[in-house]
Amino acid sequence: MNTPINLETLHTNIVAALATQFSTCTVDDYPRPGDKIITPAIFIELDDIQAENPSDMGSEQTPVMLRWNAYVVNDYKSGRKRTVRTLAAAVMQFVRGKRWSTTVGAGMPISATPDRFQASTQEYEVMRVEWEHEAILGIDVWIDDGDTPTEVNVSEQENNHAILYPPAAPSIWSDSGAWNDLTSWLD
Fold first, then answer.
1. In terms of Cα–Cα distance, which of 3, 19, 25, 11 is closest to 69?
2. Which residues are CB-contacts of 35 (< 8 A; sequence separation ≥ 6)?
3. Burial class of residue 36 in the structure, from the number of CB atoms within 10 Å of its CB (0-12 exposed, 13-18 middle, 19+ buried)
4. Burial of 32 (C-beta count, 10 Å sphere; 0-12/13-18/19+)
5. What fold is seen in the domain 7-137?
6. What is the helix, strand, coil percentage profile of the chain, to 5?
7. How far is it, in rounded angstroms, from Cα 65 to Cα 143?
8. Cα separation, 127 vs 84, whole angstroms
9. Is-contact 39 26, C-beta < 8 A?
10. What's the whole-number average pLDDT of the chain?
11. pLDDT tier at 182 (50, 70, 90 boundaries)?
12. pTM value?
C-alpha cells in the first residue's frame, strides 16, 4: 500500500524544520508582495507538481515529483552578497535527504541561483534554492483490511500423474504429411 502525501502537513513540516535549523532567519511560505521582509529570511514555495510516471500503478494513485523553491533573502543595502550565498548553500545542504517526517522521498537538491523574488532588486539580495521530492497523490483503492496469508498449501494426487498431466494429443498430420485418423486416440 502506497501512502499518499498530505501537502498541508508537508508545507508545515518544512517551514518548522527550516525555522529550527535557521533560527536567526524569518522562515515562512508564500510571502505576499509588498510585505516588509525582516532579513535574513527564507520563504518556501511548492513551484511545480509534475506527473512522474503516467502509467497506472494499479492503485489509482499518481506518482509525482514535487519541485520546491526556498528563497533566501537578505537586505541588499547591507552589501552582504556573500552572506546570502553562504546561507543558500547551507539551505541546499539542509534539504538534502530530508523527508520532513512525511511519506515523500528523500530531498534531492537541484541548484541555488540568484533570483529577483517578488521584491524589488534594489531592496534585497536573493538566492533561489531548488530541490525535489518524489511523492504519491491520491488514496490507494485497495484497502488492506484482511489477514495476509503466511502459508500457501499446494498438493498433488498421489501416484496418479495421468489425471493431472494427460498425455499430449497426437498430431492430425503424420510425419509424411498425410492425414492421421484420430478416432483410435479418442477411444
1. 11
2. none
3. exposed
4. exposed
5. STM4215-like (3.30.2000)
6. 20, 30, 50
7. 25
8. 7
9. yes
10. 83
11. low
12. 0.73
| Residue 12 dihedral angles phi and psi, to the nearest 5° | -60, -45
Q: Is the pLDDT of residue 164 over 70?
A: no
First to last CA, the chain: 53
Distance separating alpha carbons of residues 89 and 109, to the nearest angstrom? 10
* pLDDT for 187 beyond 80: no
Nearest to 104 by CA among 150, 52, 58, 158: 52
pLDDT of residue 120: 56
Return the higher-pLDDT residue of 61 and 129: 129
Pick the more confident residue, 85 or 179: 85
Mean pLDDT confidence for 88-100: 97
Phi then psi dihedrals of residue 82, to 5 deg: -65, -40
The residues, any chain, with a CB within 8 Å of residue 16's CB and separated by 6 or more, are none
107 pLDDT higher than 70: yes
C-alpha cell at 122: 534594489
